[in-house]
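Office hours follow-up: a student asked to see two folded examples consecutively, so here they are.
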Amino acid sequence: MKTKRIKNITRYSYKAGQPFNGYRLAVSRNRKAFIKYFSDRKYGSAEEALKAALACKEEYLAKLAAETVTES
């Protein structure tokens, strides 16, 4: 599956039988990194894994924005 480039999300796709096929979400702010993996196997398909990664990214960025407003 070929997807367009999405900031902070990387596709890992190996030959069948390899330990991981899916997406990695990596966001870093102020020297703190948030990394989470979304396996095709766990989510049932590459499309569902991508949807989960995008949802998690939006949730995490919203949390960061709320913390930034609170700290100001």
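And the second, which I mentioned at the end of office hours:
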Amino acid sequence: MLKNISRLVREKRTELGLSIEKLSEKADVSVSFISRVEWEQISDIKLRNLEKLSSALNIPIETFFADRNLAGLQTQKLIQFLKQLNDDNREQLCKTILKLIELSKYSTN
């Protein structure tokens, strides 16, 4: 789980164009803490600090606890988008995405 947190924090910080210093200010945590998180040099993280990071990075806190196979930033964005749709729209979009995936199989062969 800490590996996922490290990767997500680094990816989202970079995507937002934030330095470690700016993120530490926004999250009200130390620069050292951010650095240790990103470099996986921390053995445990308090829930309060995860809340601060999720708020500063504008990502839902549950993103940190996602299945590690689904923990990529873009994957989590897609999941959050799909969650916001009503059932019919979500199913239609999934159907379209799956068609595109199927078509891409044929175009790469």
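Two things to take away from it. Helices lie at 2-15, 20-27, 31-38, 47-57, 73-84, 87-108. The mean pLDDT is 89.
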